[in-house]
Design brief:
This protein has a five-stranded antiparallel β-sheet with strand order 4-3-2-1-5. Helix 1 runs antiparallel to helix 2 and helix 3 runs antiparallel to helix 5. A hairpin with a 3-residue loop joins strand 2 and strand 3. The longest helix is centred in the middle third of the chain and has 31 residues. It has one domain: Butyryl-CoA Dehydrogenase, subunit A, domain 3 (Up-down Bundle). The protein is built from five helices and five strands, in the order H-E-E-E-E-H-H-H-E-H. Functions as a key regulator of cell membrane composition by regulating proteins surface expression. Also, plays a role in regulation of processes including cell migration, cell proliferation, cell contraction and cell adhesion. It is found in: Apical cell membrane; Cytoplasm, Perinuclear region; Golgi apparatus membrane; Membrane raft. InterPro entries: EMP-2, PMP-22/EMP/MP20-like, PMP22/EMP/MP20/Claudin, PMP22_EMP_MP20.
Amino acid sequence: MLVLLVFIIFFHIVSAALLFIATIDNAWWVGEEFVADVWRICFNNTNCTEIGDTFQEFSTLQAVQASMILSTILCCIAFLVFLLQLFRLKQGERFVLTSIIQLMSCLCVMIAASIYTDRRQDIHSGNPEFYDMTTDGRYGYAFILAWVAFAFTFLSGLMYLILRKRK
C-alpha cells in the first residue's frame, strides 16, 4: 500500500509541475522568429510584447489565462486536501473530495487548451503586425504539456475516486 501511495503522490506532483510549466512558459505557438503563449509574444527572443487590451481577441486569451491559472490552483488544493484526508479519513473511505477537486482541475485545463486550439488563429491575427504568425508557426511544447497535464489530472482524479484508505 505504501508503494501505491508514493506512486499517487508522485503522479500528482508531476501533474502540478506540468500545469505550472504549461501556464508559465512562453511556448504555446512557436515559429522560426517568434514564440507566443497566453501572456506575451516574443520576436527573436529579445523583443517581447505583453498581450493586453491592444489585441483584438484579448477576451479569448483571458479565458485561457484564467482557466490555466484555476487548473493549477485546483491541482495544488487537491494535493493539500489529499494530505489532510490521508490522516483524517477512516479506513475504507474514499478520497472523493480530492477526486472532485482534481477532476475540476482537469476540466479547467481542458477548457483552456480547447479554447486555445479553436481560437489560436484568431488570437494571433488580432493585431496587424502579427499576421505572419498564423501561417508560419506550430504548436509548442508548453501547449502539448497542457494536453498531457489534462490526461494526468484526469487519471489522477480517477485514481483518487477509486482509492480507498487501507492499512
